Amino acid sequence: MIATYIAGLGAAKLSILQGMSGTGKTSLPKIFTEALQGECDIVEVESSWKDKNELIGYYNEFTKLFTPKKFTQSLYHATLNKETITLIVLDEMNLSRIEYYFSDFLSLMENEEDKRTFKLVNVPLSYVKDGQRHDYLGLEKGHTLRITPNIWFIGTANRDESTFEISDKVYDRANTINFDSRAPKAIPQGEPLKPKYLSYEAFRTLLDDAKNNFRFDLETVSYIPRVEKLLEPYNISFGNRIARQMEDFVKVYCSCFEDGASRINEAMEDILLSKVVHKLEYKSVEDKDELAEEFEKLNLHRCAKFISRLSEDN
What we know:
- The chain has helices at 2-11, 27-36, 53-56, 70-80, 98-108, 168-172, 200-213, 224-231, 240-255, 264-275, 288-297, 301-313, and strands at residues 14-19, 39-44, 57-60, 65-68, 86-91, 117-119, 126-129, 132-135, 139-140, 144-146, 151-158, 175-179.
- The chain has 314 residues and is α/β, with parallel strands linked by helices.
- Helix 1 packs across helix 9 (240-255) and helix 11 (288-297) runs antiparallel to helix 12.
């Protein structure tokens, strides 16, 4: 699970941790940053959110003051501490429709790293100290916030009647981890390791080394054309963005282990299930047993089990 989580950070700037309540979705990013002495800010999403201002904050035309929300404060703090790994957790992100309040950031993540900027207001902001007006160091032109590379967004999502379905637009831009069951109780073995500071640049170097040095090409996976053919009737496919994420995920995941080369199939099925096959959950599949059998023939046992379970649920 830890390797899957780290590989997700290497594949995308947005991770979605979804599944049952109480399975550790919020705890995982917290313990990750505690171990590496990074920053983890929890932003509680509310069901009443209808637009980006609920996430960002509001500018009062009368007082000429901008009131930032916790999310904006976390972004600002991260821009002033570019050497620190920063995870901003949108807790229960699907309590409201994600596109209502987060669509601008979904689009921003498509841009190159040096072009990810967000304009908070249309006028320059400043503050008064000791009778003098000062500019905010973390704002460009007084009103624009840069989404620096040391920032990752983590969304937790419960799957029940009180939440909204997450769209393909969101899933395609994120790495997803499914928490389908409660983990067994962890029994400590020996003394716990002390936290060890890892800078963003050091972490970035580790991720880049994994992507550049571990040899893996999605085109060499023999069963991919067959999987695409099996999913074609359900209008499920993946383009270059998802293919690139899948390659990055496999490379980083395998680099987490000494026997990484032997774990390619394990990593490949993991990312294939979470990014592609999981979309069958929202489709009407007439003969699920037959489809599951076809995935069994490809030795994609977890995918087959997922499809078989759909036949019980629907």
